[in-house]
Design a protein that fits this description.
Blueprint (H helix, E strand, L loop, with lengths): L3 H14 L5 E6 L22 E5 L2 E6 L2 E6 L4 E6 L14 E7 L6 E6 L7 E5 L6 H4 L12 H8 L6 H6 L9 H11 L12 H22 L7 H8 L18 E4 L4 E4 L1 H4 L16
Antiparallel strand pairs: 1-6, 2-3, 3-4, 4-8, 5-7, 6-7, 9-10
Length: 288
């Protein structure tokens, strides 16, 4: 799933390639991706893009008083194209969900695609990004310079949930998903099952630093890359997520995994849990 660093990089890429150019044609191929209908997404045709930005994991393409808001979800992606076919795309069973062609060069534009059978890619056309429910409920952006360790401590106070779940909650912090929550907790040397409310001020400061350092490093690694290169860059930069059975790059212990119904987490026992493996919550209580 694209998370804050990848969406930030996509925003930067589109700022360079899209801002100042007029939208020609918009082809909604998979109607189910459209979450708003008034104004229609085709109302953006003929408008000039004046800004591209990010809100959490949402990409916002602005053209005057209209905004194309995209949430790529788990399996969605944006593919920049410079050789689009002349014929309009036809609805079908392929991954293509929506195509945007530029007016000055109809062969140039971008496709929104989604792999797999679970279709969660979401596209909105709104007059204010805050009209998108997912944006309206976002918590603070962890890369905002105004976001301090004190604010994080206040957000975690009273949270009876585990750190892993809290970090992924977009209403608490905007933009962190499954992969970077694993990376942040590994950098902070904290168990994913530690209760958020139990963090001391010193531990919160450590977590705050790990959040900032991990996300900024990922953004920096992605800087200047083309949209099609971002997925591979994300994978190569991860130290524990998706690396079950491999040695921890810090201590050499074997990276372990806990599986859930629709996701999994990875961690290093030596770095994060005092050498103790975590139990699978589907069958037993966690080991503290």
């Amino acid at each position: 799933m694209p998370e804050l660093p990848e969406v930030e990089a996509l925003s930067a890429f589109l700022t360079e390639h899209l801002v100042g150019r007029e939208i020609g044609r918009i082809h909604p191929v998979a109607i189910n991706v459209l979450k708003t209908y008034d104004p229609p997404v085709t109302a953006l045709q003929g408008r000039t893009v004046d800004a591209v930005g990010r809100r959490g994991k949402f990409l916002v393409i602005s053209a005057g008083d209209l905004h194309l808001v995209v949430h790529l979800a788990r399996a969605g992606w944006l593919r920049w194209q410079q050789k689009l076919p002349a014929a309009p795309p036809r609805p079908g069973k392929g991954p293509l969900a929506l195509r945007v062609q530029l007016a000055d060069d109809p062969a140039t534009g971008f496709d929104l695609t989604e792999a797999g059978t679970q279709k969660r890619l979401a596209v909105y056309c709104v007059t204010d990004p805050e009209q998108v429910p997912g944006i309206a409920r976002l918590g603070p952006d962890p890369l905002d310079p105004a976001f301090t360790a004190t604010e994080l401590h206040q957000l975690l106070a009273g949270e009876k949930r585990q750190l892993k779940g809290v970090l992924r909650d977009q209403s608490v912090l905007a933009g962190i998903g499954n992969a970077y929550s694993d990376e942040i907790l590994h950098a902070a040397k904290m168990s994913p099952f530690k209760l958020a409310a139990r963090l001391s001020e010193a531990e919160t400061a450590t977590l705050h630093a790990a959040i900032g350092d991990t996300l900024r490093d990922a953004v920096e690694r992605s800087r200047g890359l083309a949209a099609g290169e971002l997925k591979a860059e994300k994978k190569t930069g991860l130290r524990v997520h998706g690396r079950t059975g491999q040695p921890c790059p810090v201590c050499g212990d074997t990276i372990r995994e806990v599986s859930f119904a629709d996701s999994s987490l990875q961690y290093c026992p030596t770095c994060q849990t005092g050498g103790k493996p975590l139990a699978d919550r589907r069958f037993s209580k966690l080991l503290k």
